[in-house]
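Researcher: Here's a chain I'd like modeled. Treat it as a single chain, no partners, no ligands.
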Amino acid sequence: MRVAYRATQLLALPVLLFATWWFASAGSTAFYIPPLSVILDAFDDTWFGPRITEDVLPSLGRLALGYLIAVVVGVVVGMLIGLNRTLRALLEPTLEFLRAIPPPVLVPILMLFAGIGNSMKVLVIVSGCVWPVLLNTVEGVRAIDGVLIDTCRSYRIGGVLRLWHLVLRSASPQIMAGARQALSVGIILMVISEMFAASSGLGFTIVQFQRGFQIPEMWSGVLLLGLLGVLLSLVFRVVENRVLAWYHGVRTVEKER
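Model: Modeled as a single isolated chain. Structure tokens:
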């Protein structure tokens, strides 16, 4: 019963929006706003074929690589900065400056240094995804309970054990929050990076459809991006529940008190 209720909560709004789109566009004769039925027909013809391996999988591969690099760099650098007050004070103005630069404007610059291949696209994703992870890691490390720090000091727990069991675990809720934000940013940057000097990928293909006035195919690409976003969000939620199982357990116990 509980599972059915949860499924209803998750699917009610998407089904309502889908039905609204279907009936609102059913009689459309506008060239740029075709009926949803036409878009779904184009979706089947366009994406269930060679484009899965030629465009979809390469895009997801670049996203995965850039995202993982950003998470690793963000966590490592964030922990170093969060643990060192002097380093944090020294780097904070520079970090705020770099964070304020929109990653899409770096594309022409990255093209000069990394060319127009996969390296440039991965670097664009890294340049945008690293900041939510890094800044949330810094804040998570800064917010570690002082009692836990004193306990580790009293029991002479230091080095790698202290970093793993105290610092990383205490900051993990904040880190996962930053990683969730970074995932959304990464999907956006994946598409943007493929709109510049690319020969494959979802962003490239959607732009080619738009330039060729293949409007149903263009809309089908937008629909596919939305579905991929939902799927990646669900995968992330599964990983998050595993990583933060201890945290959710503590919160459940606190609520029951």
